[in-house]
Amino acid sequence: MENKKTIEAIRDFIMTAEKSIKNANKLLKTVLEQEWVSLSSPVKLDASDMNSYMSEDSKIVEWLFTGDEMLGSDGNNYPVPANYASKSKLVQGDKLKLTIAANGKMLYKQIAPIERETRAGLLIKEKEKFQVIADGQTYDLLTAAVTHFKAEIGDNISVIIPAGKAATFAAIDMVLPTK
After folding, report:
1. 8-22, 67-81, 132-146: which has the highest mean pLDDT?
2. Band of pLDDT at residue 175, cut at 50, 70 and 90
3. 116-125 pLDDT, tens per residue?
4. What pLDDT sits at residue 43?
5. From start to end of the chain, where are the E strands?
6. What is the value of pTM for the model shown?
7. Taking 50 as the threshold, does the pLDDT of residue 41 lie above it?
8. Is 85 strand, coil or helix?
9. Cα 154 from chain centre
10. Cα gap 7→21, rounded to integer Å
């Protein structure tokens, strides 16, 4: 009987700790987004030189690609179609322009790519996320990119990352041929 009470107390402590961690993560995300920092990126993303404006009936938002979404100059996060990011080989820090038409249609255009470097690495899957290990670093990959390039776990791939900057996401450049 005493063991049952101890087990229940431990379970309660764990549930309380999990709730505290979840709330702390929410608060941290809010603070970081206010400072233009992405949780997925150790790099401070500077959006100070970007604009948001109206052109005829369309809203124009300039933004930075974070690896899986965009930080808009208007302070909002916007989704990025994964197939567009994959095919365009977008890299964390690329500056883009989003035109939102009156009818809701969205048109994306890259306006200033960040300086890039290429690395080779091994494609893996960890906790349902595709990743590449290149030069001792692990980078997340978009599932759409893995599918687009028909890459498979264990393939050697070439990836693109921001030159000289810390990054958590990489863009697939190509699947390297096996010897």
Report:
1. 132-146
2. very high
3. 999 999 999 9
4. 47
5. 52-55, 58-65, 69-72, 77-79, 95-100, 106-112, 116-126, 129-134, 137-140, 156-162, 171-175
6. 0.67
7. no
8. helix
9. 22
10. 21
CB atoms within 10 A of CB 71: 22
Gap between the terminal Cα atoms of the chain: 64
CATH number of 116-175: 2.40.50.140
Domain with CATH 2.40.50.140 in the chain: 116-175
Q: Which one, of 164, 159, 172, lies nearest residue 82 by Cα?
A: 172
pLDDT mean across residues, the chain: 82
Q: What 3-state DSSP class applies to 175?
A: strand
Is it the case that residue 145 has pLDDT exceeding 60? yes
**Residue 125, SS3?**
strand
Cα radius of gyration (the chain): 20
At the top level of CATH, the class of 52-112 is mainly beta
**8 A C-beta contact, residue 61 and residue 79:** no
User: Residue 161 and residue 92: Cα distance in Å, rounded?
Assistant: 7
DSSP 141-170: --HHHHHHTT--TT-EEEEEEETTS--SB-
